[in-house]
Amino acid sequence: MSTHQATFVRASMIEAAPAPSRESGIVHWLRTNLFATPKDTALTIISLLVLAWIVPPAIQWLFIDAAWTGGGRGVCATLAQGGSQPDGWSGACWAFVSAKFDQFLFGRYPLEERWRPALVGVLFVLFLVPMLIPKVPYKGLNAVLLLAVLPIIATILLPGGWLGLTFVETPLWGGLMVTLVLSFVGIAVSLPLGILLALGRRSNMPVIKMLCTVFIEIVRGVPLITVLFMASVMLPLFLPQGVTFDKFLRALIGVSLFASAYMAEVVRGGLQAIPKGQYEGADSLGLSYWQKMGLIVLPQALKLVIPGIVNTFIGLFKDTSLVSIIGMFDLLGIVRLNFTDTNWASAVTPLTGLIFAGFVFWLFCFGMSRYSGFMERLLDKSQR
Amino acid sequence: MGIGANAASAATLDDVKAKGFVQCGVNTGLAGFAAPDAAGNWSGFDVDYCKAIAAAIFGDATKVKYTPTSAKERFPALQSGEVDVLARNTTWTINRDTALGFNFRPVNYYDGQGFMVRKGLDVKSALELSGAAVCVQTGTTTELNLADYFKANNLQYNPVVFEKLEEVNAAYDAGRCDVYTTDQSGLYSLRLTLSNPDDHIILPEIISKEPLGPAVRQGDDQWFDIVTWVHYALVQAEEFGITQANVEEMKKSANPDVQRFLGVEADSKIGTDLGLTNEWAVNVVKAVGNYGEIFDRNIGAGSPLKIERGLNALWTKGGLQYAIPVR
């Protein structure tokens, strides 16, 4: 009798082998994302070629060939242009940005008084950052500091004229400071005003409804440039001689009202998206109008329209550069103004200045966009 | 557009003295004429005129505030009284002098529209430019002058128009058009930003007259006289050879004309008749120098622009700058 003699008996479990290289790691990622089909492969190769065509020259121009230091157009001009760079040279003129950096921040604000906008800027960051981080406590106090105390401090410090501070007129303001003041005030005014206008437009009271609708439609029907231009050019012609009313204030009011009308329509979109049952449920609980709106409807509606609200903020932030057509210099305006300084006139100065201004605008807008994405995920828990 | 003109008060000088400064309308940025310096202060040819007017009135060139005005804003700003004087490279035309209700008299800069072309094209005259692509800024009189000139001479051209000056400059530098046209002063500032300035020439033709000068509201002759005579004093100082450096010394000059001009003559009324002090011409020259010094410092040989005096030389040197006698 013979038994079957096994030649091999597995005594222990085999170790799990790593997945085939084409199914894991970077190769897998590349295969599924970049080279999944022949069409994908072709698109990937074309994209890489375009990048290879754009990126190295851009880096070369922006950083390697750039003129970083120097005190005049000479460092950014070629020998033929009367400068010190070799003929045929082209690179970014960062020396221009660094020489004019203070002006880009503060405009023509007097040198010895620049600590005032700088202090307001520091306070703004100090109050804003804890406001934006959900974990930090004392949100109520923080909101009071940011929305009530800071505007008061800014109103005292920026123009001055009291408490022993020299008066700095608004035509001297400029640069990033003007951009930020206009956008902050625009945002802080337009959100509450926009919500009120949106509620008014959906109100059952005919007069309020009509007034809100007329305001929104008129403001939305007129370009911002026209509003600014009317405020700056036409208004003084109708005022009696000697009555002047600060141009910056006029622009501030124009921008805020303009943003409010857009905000109202965004918020109205949110209000309409809330099912009727929510309104009726609130009514059946016996809540008053403001309780219904404040506790039930608006928290849901506003959460829905965060992308639209942030979109309006970003639009507003960028629209502030339109004030340069009424002779005020926001960041872009002051950068462009400095192109006319003959001590810095060169072929590459305008391009460098515009890249710098574009980068600063992008930083702010991208920051707002990322933060709104974060808020959406945070508030979205009920929907998951 | 006459609404604002009647609102304008008559005695600008009294208003200016009461508020303590001259409100001066300048360009929102034009190389050499009104541009920010390193510290962000306004400087330039037109800005020096604002300073000169302030010096004539207050003996202090810092008593001036600037309102940057865009091309569209400048006239309403003057009409409404927002600015006292407009020193903003504004061309004197009959329409502006009459219908818009302004007064112009002295021309502080004779400009004119010209053409710049690449040397490689081998063009010697604007009449050879038929079929050329011309870079021009839109919405300016430059564009209209260009159309008029080519139509009058039966030439064809392709306008390549841009909204912003930097765009026009970049397009011309990149070779998107053969010809660049703007005021001659602008052609000089363009040269600073070209990759190879020596590859370009400015054609001899001047196709338009652009007499630039300060403007004031109609109906206030005293103020108009002050603005006018500040310019003539600057030119007169150059004729006499009075400079910022030697003005105090020149007071001792034996020349009766110079003595009268500087207000050191016995019982002089050279300034009081204008509503100023007799020292006004001294103050102007002390603050900004004479016309030639202003020109050199901002746009002439002493600046990166290096514009030739040309028509703006003194009449004694073949130019058009001629001071009305101060006596």
TrEMBL record, chain A:
The keyword Transmembrane applies. Signal peptide: none annotated. Pfam families: BPD_transp_1. CDD domains: TM_PBP2. Keywords: Cell membrane, Membrane, Transmembrane, Transmembrane helix, Transport. It is a multi-pass membrane protein. The chain crosses the membrane at residues 41-64, 115-133, 140-160, 172-199, 211-239, 295-316, 322-339, 351-371. The keyword Membrane applies. It is found in: Cell inner membrane; Cell membrane. InterPro entries: AA_ABC_transptr_permease_3TM (IPR010065), ArtM/GltK/GlnP/TcyL/YhdX-like (IPR043429), MetI-like (IPR000515), MetI-like_sf (IPR035906). PROSITE patterns: ABC_TM1 (PS50928). It comes from the Bacteria. Residues 176-365 form the ABC transmembrane type-1 domain. Its main location: membrane. Belongs to the binding-protein-dependent transport system permease family. HisMQ subfamily. NCBIfam families: HEQRo_perm_3TM. This is General L-amino acid transport system permease protein. It comes from Sinorhizobium kostiense.
